Amino acid sequence: NAGVMQNPRHLVRRRGQEARLRCSPMKGHSHVYWYRQLPEEGLKFMVYLQKENIIDESGMPKERFSAEFPKEGPSILRIQQVVRGDSAAYFCASSPPVFAPFNEKLFFGSGTQLSVL
Amino acid sequence: TQLLEQSPQFLSIQEGENLTVYCNSSSVFSSLQWYRQEPGEGPVLLVTVVTGGEVKKLKRLTFQFGDARKDSSLHITAAQPGDTGLYLCAGEPPDYKLSFGAGTTVTVRA
């Protein structure tokens, strides 16, 4: 997981506030994935982005959640009007431009632990 | 949704003992990956298995992919405290969205 940088590591928000989670992929990687992990649950796919494009957001709630991966800068996962149920660890992963099967294709960051009070 | 079930959910053993964790699904996967995750960190890939019946060894860890490519197991020989962590399996369906199991939390006591 070296090279995928997520910040902040811990984020505390009160109900109704906005949360912004950032992810800088590994150098040379142009594909970014966001996953959410709840205690004693596996990672759940949220959204898949390439530079300036959302490829698949089928795992992301339709309301309050949005994601972007601009041409310059990190990918942002934005949660508006947070609720307690949004408390979770959010992981970002990146992969190289060619999604080669059978290779080590996903590298994960250390995650952002979001706590909603 | 292709569901992956991992068992057991928790496993606590003494240093030096062997252990096996399982990953089962009713779906066929083109490949299956095992990750280890430590508290406060992201998952780190251990191995990818591709061929039905394939067995891969990584030092004291042995990974097996079922003949039908629906299940997999991870066996650790002579476990050490450094093996402690959450072990996740993830299946690769025809698309890119890996399906993760809920994981097995392994604790190796010194």
Distance between the termini of chain B: 39 Å
Main sheet summary of chain A: 7 strands, mixed
* Proportion in β-strands of chain A: over 45%
Radius of gyration of chain B: 13 Å
Q: Hey, which two chains have the biggest interface?
A: A-B, 27 and 24 residues
Shape descriptor of chain A: globular
The chain-level mean pLDDT of chain A equals: 89
Mean pLDDT over the full residue set of chain B: 91
- Which percent band covers the strand fraction of chain B? over 45%
What structural class results from the helix and strand content of chain B? mainly beta
H/E order of the elements of chain A?
A: EEEEEEEEEEE
Query: Could you give the count of β-strands of chain A?
Result: 11
Helix-strand topology string of chain B: EEEEEEEEEEE
Helix content of chain B: under 10%
Alpha-carbon distance between the two ends of chain A: 30 Å
Rg of chain A, Cα atoms, Å = 14 Å
Number of helices of chain A: 0
Low-confidence stretches of chain A: none
Question: What oligomeric assembly is this protein in?
Answer: heterodimer
For the biggest sheet of chain B, the summary is: 6 strands, mixed
Overview of this structure, please?
- The complex is a heterodimer of chains A (117) and B (110).
- Chain A is mostly beta strands and 117 residues long.
- Chain A has strands spanning 5-7, 10-13, 19-24, 31-37, 43-50, 53-56, 65-68, 75-79, 88-95, 107-108, 112-116.
- In chain A, the strands form 2 sheets. In chain A, strands 2, 4, 5, 6, 9, 10 and 11 form a 7-stranded mixed β-sheet that branches. A 4-stranded antiparallel β-sheet of chain A has the order 1-3-8-7, with no helix packed on it.
- Chain A is globular and about 40 Å long.
- Chain B is mainly beta.
- Helix content of chain B is 0%, strand content 53%.
- Chain B has no helices and 11 strands.
- Chain B has strands spanning 5-7, 10-14, 19-24, 31-37, 44-49, 55-58, 61-65, 71-76, 85-92, 99-100, 104-109.
- In chain B, the strands form 2 sheets. In chain B, strands 2, 4, 5, 9, 10 and 11 form a 6-stranded mixed β-sheet that branches.
- In chain B, strand 4 and strand 5 (44-49) form a beta hairpin.
- Chain B starts with a strand and ends with a strand.
- The model of chain B has no long low-confidence stretch (mean pLDDT 91).
- Classes of the chains: A mainly beta (117), B mainly beta (110).
